Amino acid sequence: MKIIKVILENMNKASQKNKALMIFKPVLNAMDEFFFGTDKVTSLPHIVDNMDIKRLMSLVIIALMPVTIASVYFWGLRVFLVIMVSYAFGGLIEVCFAVFRKKEIHEGFLVTGLIFPLILPPGVPLWVVAIGVMFGVIFGKEAFGGTGRNIFNPAIVGRVFLTIAFPNIMTMNWQMPFNKGLGGFIHFQNSVDAITTATPLALFKNQGIITSYSNLMLGQSAGCIGETFRVGIIAGGLFLIAMRIVDWRLPLAYLATVVIFPYLGNHLIHTQFALGGFQLLSGGLLLGAFFMATDPVTSPFTKPGRWIAGFLLGFLTVLIRGLSGYMEGVMFSILLVNAFTPLIDTMVLKARYKKK
Fold first, then answer.
1. How far is residue 105's CA from residue 91's CA, in Å, rounded to a whole number?
2. Which of 104, 166, 234, 268 keeps 20 to 30 A from 55, CA to CA?
């Protein structure tokens, strides 16, 4: 590590002397903070600590590790390649914008670059991964000014774009996961012959078949790379709540609404919504509730606002799943609520602090 420190110090000195190298200063600073942490702390009367966005994002990465490891087991070693492409092309966009704006590289992409591949189909072509992550970073974050200024979740922006632009690739030809022995740890990916199934949501909507809850919990069903091992998702979500990275109000309101609303809808408006338990354990709902809807930048910052956002997310998810042509309503519901987040917080503040 001392060698890395010396190299970075020498490169920083060289960049200060050579104006042509100054454009790479954000990259050098990002590397220094990645290896050695930040020296920026708050001053009194605040608690002095080097807790910054990198450490916060690191805890989210740790929470995603069970899901990521399980994804490799279920879908093969190709998952690593999908993640590498996501980080490479998304990170390239981050660096280009940082250099162009002459600003520091933000670590927010550490999470976006991992979540994005986890919400893609296992057999997605690598060029589609590259296009999707670049679109999400550019139009979901950088177009608004970068990390902290975006109103939409970049990973979901990229995923929705791919769903609309490449519907056949993103909604058809789902694989069944490996489920024996070492599974994907000794395989690159499933063969093309294995692509013969549908997701649990599609099976219910088209044939009325409900996948067993045990298979849904343990990842024995078709789905996106990181959404099927729901035991790991729940464990990671509870870890974030325990570490106070995520406020429990929003995911609780979201999940409770998804469980309760189908019962009310089926009785009051005589629809055929899937029952709450199946809604909860199918698709990307748990991954969205714990890791995407709770994004500190795009979710409400007021406590009542988080309750409201959670109720809206659950309501919209069930409606989109049951009444639209899209099987999965989580992505669209999160984007819609992201758009209304400033209004939700504003209404809460105005109601709480009324002018006398």
1. 10
2. 234
Q: CA 251 → CA 160, 230, 240, distances in Å?
A: 21, 15, 11
Asked if 232 and 292 count as a contact pair (C-beta separation under 8 A), the reply is no
Token pair for 75:
């879908």
Mind listing the domains of the chain with CATH numbers?
1-51 (no CATH), 53-352 (1.10.3430)
Nearest CA to 241 out of 55, 63, 51 is that of 63
Per-residue burial over 130-154, b if 16 or more Cβ lie within 10 Å, else e, is: bbbbbbbbbbbbbeeebbeebebbb
HEC per residue, 245-271: CCCCHHHHHHHHHHHHHHHHHHHHCCC
| pTM value > 0.90 | no
- 191-243 pLDDT, tens per residue? 654 555 678 888 888 887 888 888 899 988 888 999 999 999 999 999 999 98
> How far is it, in rounded angstroms, from Cα 271 to Cα 289?
24
Largest CA distance in the chain: 73
Q: What does the block give as tokens for 68?
A: 């990521």
The letter for the amino acid at 218 is L
